[in-house]
Fold:
Amino acid sequence: MPKLAPELYAALSTFAGHRRILVALDFDGTLSPLVDRPEDARPTPQAAQVFEELSQQYGVRTAVVSGRNLDSLTEVYPAPRPENLIGSHGAERRVPSVSSDSPEQPELSASQRANLKELTAKLSEVAQRHEGVSLEYKPSATVLHVRQAPSIEVADAAIIEGQQALAHLDELRLMAGKSVLEASVHSGNKGQALQWLREVLDVDALLFIGDDVTDEDGFRILNREDLGIKVGEGPTLAAHRIETPEMLPELLEFLLSMRN
Ligand SMILES: O=P(O)(O)OC[C@H]1O[C@H](O[C@H]2O[C@H](CO)[C@@H](O)[C@H](O)[C@H]2O)[C@H](O)[C@@H](O)[C@@H]1O
Structure:
């Protein structure tokens, strides 16, 4: 198992020195290794345990900031889990300390509902044409999954056909992820959600760890006192990197030891 880079230990020590901190983690590819079927994903047990211990520390707030919708996230992440949950890339927000009369998810307008229905029908046609390609449904988005396609050619063809099928639709956010094409009628992103969490949880610094393209929205809003860590390869705005989700427990344990 590769060790954390020396400069990452140093950055974590500095970060841990802030009075009130938020530790925000992405789910798929970060807390959980990537798997073929979204419903089979689970957090690495050791990472989940240390994350829970961190949440008990004075001055530490924890959150999961996921592209999944909240129902799906809570199905694959059994309790105990952080009380603060962001789903659908920021469109759904469950933060108990914030007034309960604020909705977990904004109601869609009539035109958003119509768009969601149309884009779902288009993606459904694409999925039906290709073996191993399936759909995942969210309150404000539909996701085309190609990880189980029999070949890279089939996977690529399905993604390209999905993009072409939706090209004529307005007010749509298309997000490319790992073996997915997500079409959303909501414009929010993880960066906006993290900024909001920073304010409502009143923290001095935040740590965000993520692996996918949509996590770059989160890294983009980080300030000098914050810390961004990318999991795996690929271009990133994060200042630090770990190679795999399996390195997350050691990282969280070090942070926990610094807070103790
Ligand atoms: O922001 P995240 O919590 O990382 O969610 C991003 C997407 O994750 C899920 O898809 C990814 O993980 C699946 C299970 O490991 C994998 O099969 C798929 O190929 C990955 O893209 C989830 O299904 C999506 O809804 C999330 O948007």
Q: What stands out?
A: Residues 110-184 form a domain with the Alpha-Beta Plaits fold (CATH 3.30.70). The first strand starts at residue 21 and ends at 25.
